[in-house]
Design brief:
The protein is of the alpha+beta class and about 325 residues long. It has 2 domains: about 5-110, Phosphorylase Kinase, domain 1 (2-Layer Sandwich), CATH 3.30.200; about 115-335, Alpha-Beta Complex (Aminoglycoside 3'-phosphotransferase, Chain: A, domain 2), CATH 3.90.1200. Helix content is about 50%, strand content about 15%. Strand 8 (about 220) and strand 9 (about 230) form a beta hairpin. Helix 9 runs antiparallel to helix 10 and helix 11 packs antiparallel against helix 12 (about 310-335). The protein is globular.
């Protein structure tokens, strides 16, 4: 029986000529990488916070992915193409009325230009941090704001996210995190809401709640011309509608996860100056804990994916543990301050 995941690794199944196809999988997508173009097909999964279970939903979220990401990445997201069957095999292209699935078509971004790659080569410079800070400060200043979006900045609304995280990771206690870490982070998070409710309201009043990116880690910052950010959250408005501080916190956290604490401090210094942020370090730490926990959670989901082999799962297990350990370390560091 023909398999989409097998068929689309054949170069002849793609609409743009390529000598080879490389498959990269995440917990929510299959990414078929040709020489110049990339095709992302969403998996038919339903995690509650994300629902790609129907063809109609996958089509809608493909369209939304292109629209939203064009805000931060000029010329990278090119459109949505149908996945169709031709002579019993899957291909990308064909009659949209005969679509059995959908794919986002993108320009392939050289891995060497990603922030994570530059950092690993020891080539991440102040000029890169300045370009990133300028892009994000401008984006956050211009991003959509409305009364409905403002509501997502209240502590009661944001608590939905953290409550969901704890519910969805409880089954992983003993695998990706231990019980002490789980209970410690949950208790600290809920205590932060009780002690800092007015601070969340102040951020709303200052107009800091925007339609953000939602997934700003190092592999999503691309030093093209101009610098770009890719792969924003398209599948759940709740994860994009947030304090701009929560958005930049993700990137700062990921830099620190990789060992670039000094670079993260410098990026925050430049961004804070451009964005007019002062006295927000305590709230920033809260959002770093949240972002590290989210990263540990979603990477841990790979352990339940039957399409991912055991070696990759073991790597995911170790990476998820490190993110949860980082989340706990932020809390310990805050207690010491």
């Amino acid at each position: 029986m023909s398999s989409l995941i097998d068929d689309l690794q054949n170069p002849s199944a793609l609409p743009d000529p390529t000598p080879h196809v490389t498959l990269v999988q995440t917990h929510i997508s299959m990414v078929f990488m040709g020489a110049e173009y990339v095709y992302k097909v969403k998996k038919p999964v339903d995690f509650g916070f994300l629902d790609f279970s129907s063809l109609e939903k996958r089509h809608r979220y493909c369209e939304q992915e292109v629209r939203l990401n064009q805000r931060l990445s000029e010329g990278v997201y090119l459109g949505v193409l149908p996945v169709t069957l031709f002579e019993g095999r899957y291909r990308i292209g064909g009659n949209p009325d005969e679509a059995v699935d959908w794919a986002v078509r993108m320009k392939r971004i050289p891995e060497a230009c990603l922030m994570k790659s530059l950092y690993e080569r020891g080539e991440l410079r102040d000029s890169h941090l300045e370009a990133t800070a300028k892009l994000l400060a401008r984006f956050h200043r211009e991003a959509e704001r409305s009364p409905d979006i403002d509501d997502f900045g209240t502590w009661q609304r944001f608590k939905i996210n953290t409550d969901e995280n704890f519910a969805q990771t409880e089954a992983f206690v003993g695998q990706t995190l231990d019980r002490e870490t789980y209970e410690g982070i949950r208790g600290w998070t809920n205590g932060f809401y009780r002690a800092n409710g007015p601070l969340f309201e102040k951020r709303v009043q200052q107009g800091r709640i925007r339609d953000c990116h939602g997934d700003l880690h190092m592999e999503h910052i691309c030093f093209l011309d101009p610098v770009a950010a890719i792969d924003c959250i398209e599948f759940n408005d709740r994860f994009r509608y947030s304090d701009t501080l929560a958005d930049i916190a993700f990137l700062l956290m990921d830099l620190e996860f990789q060992g670039g604490r000094d670079l993260a401090a410098r990026l925050w210094e430049i961004y804070a100056d451009l964005a007019g942020e002062t006295g927000m370090e305590r709230l920033l730490s809260f959002y770093k804990v949240y972002r590290a926990y989210v990263r540990g959670k979603v990477i841990g989901f790979q352990l339940q994916d039957e399409n991912i082999d055991s070696e990759i799962k073991e790597e995911a297990l170790q990476t998820a543990r490190r993110y949860f350990t980082l989340a706990r370390s932020y809390i310990e560091r805050t207690a010491d301050d």
